[in-house]
Amino acid sequence: MRGRQPLQPPTKQHEPDGQFHKYPSYRGGPTTTYGGYVWEFVGEHPLANKWGFVAQHRLVGADLVGRPLRKGEVVHHRNEVRADNRPENLEVMTASAHRAHHAKQTALANQIPLCPKAVAEALSRHRAVKPAARELGVSHGTLRLRFPELCAPHRRKSPTKIEEDPHLDEIRALSADPRVGLRQAAAQTGMSIRTFCRIAERNGIAWVKQTRSDKGRARPGGRPPAPAGSRRHEG
Predict the structure, then answer these.
(1) Are the CB atoms for 153 and 167 separated by under 8 Å?
(2) pLDDT at 221
(3) How far apart are alpha carbons 69 and 92 in whole angstroms?
């Protein structure tokens, strides 16, 4: 930084264009403003435009890292003031990291205010993340990201693997019990009715129909009956 001029913080958040010599020079050349940034005349320079001006924050950024800036590197203003080119206010980062930083800041500024108490009450009422998120007006991903501790007890279960199901013995016992209905059996094993039926069919488990007039009779073919109300009544 030897031979460089000390820079002072700006007096405005965003300076109008064409403010010549208002800001101090960093390398001794005249300065102007454009797009809210301070530009400095340096003549021949790899970063200079066709008039010989370089964005001053890029001159300072190159000195911060001790080398010319590479393609794809940007200089970030920590306090979001484009004309504040003091070294302590600048940070050199990749373009993708810079976009991610501003996207995160924008998301934080625009996020719907939520308090842990309201989230806990919604989860307690619905006992699931998705309906609780609908009530609060946010996505279920937002709830999981912002309140992971509250959503942890309601974590989604991984899909059941039909080939290696640990409930196979329990399914056999429930299928043979005429006192247990299909919906009850599926809920007891923690799976959907369709998955329960597929496991029973694949393993040749005969389902005992739960009817008042014909209890204890095995359904032919081993496939459990369809849930109540799904078959059309005739006559």
Answers:
(1) no
(2) 44
(3) 9
pLDDT for position 161: 55
Q: Are 23 and 10 in contact (CB under 8 A)?
A: yes
pTM score: 0.45
**What is the reported pLDDT for 80?**
86
Please name the residues in contact with 200: beta carbons below 8 A apart, sequence gap of 6 or more: 171, 175, 207, 222, 223, 224
**Contact present, 199 and 186 (Cβ < 8 Å):** no
Q: What is the mean pLDDT of each run of 10 residues along the chain (235 residues)?
A: 58 70 88 91 89 94 92 91 92 93 78 86 89 86 88 72 68 85 85 85 79 49 50 42
Give the angle subtended at the CA of 132 by the CAs of 129 and 137, to the nearest 5°: 120
- Classify strands 31-34 and 90-94 as parallel, antiparallel or unpaired: unpaired
Q: How far apart are CA 48 and CA 25, in angstroms?
A: 15
9 CB contacts (<8 Å, ≥6 apart)?
Answer: 81, 84, 86, 89
Residue with tokens 């509250």, as numbered in its chain: 150
